[in-house]
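Forum > Structural Biology > Help requests

Title: Can anyone predict the 3D structure of Thioredoxin, mitochondrial?

Hi all, first post here. I have the sequence for Thioredoxin, mitochondrial but no way to get a structure on my laptop. I'd be grateful if someone could post the structure tokens.
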Amino acid sequence: MAQRLALQRLLAFPTRGPLASHGRAFGTSAGRRNTFNVQDGSDFQDRVVNSPKPVVVDFHAQWCGPCKILGPRLEKLVAKQEGKVLMAKVDIDDHTDLAIEYEVSAVPTVLAMKNGDVVDKFVGIKDEDQLEAFLKKLIGA
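Reply #1:
Sure, ran it for you. Structure tokens for Thioredoxin, mitochondrial below:
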């Protein structure tokens, strides 16, 4: 779905006129580099547990309405931290083993991890002020 939307945007981008000189229709933002989808257990171990930076882990599901609200909100705030924290997205339907290991019983569940340890956690949706406080506590700001 996201690929189709990106392709539609690319195809709709003008090739002539005043907007054509601005280059590409889309790019990779710094926030995207700080957010990643976990591929499997070893990827989680490498990129989350062994991360030198603090990591916010978003356990979510495609069918979860609140997850669709929380995820983008959290990604935006992680991007604002300018690389001080990373965000890992874990789909519980694809990675049931990780959900069980980290005792995820409802989605969305968000873990704050530092040096491989869970240092904070919340379940459910939060407003931006609460999310900012969560991130600041994790970063130590």
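The chain is about 40% helix and 20% strand. The first strand starts at residue 35 and ends at 37.
Shout if anything looks off.
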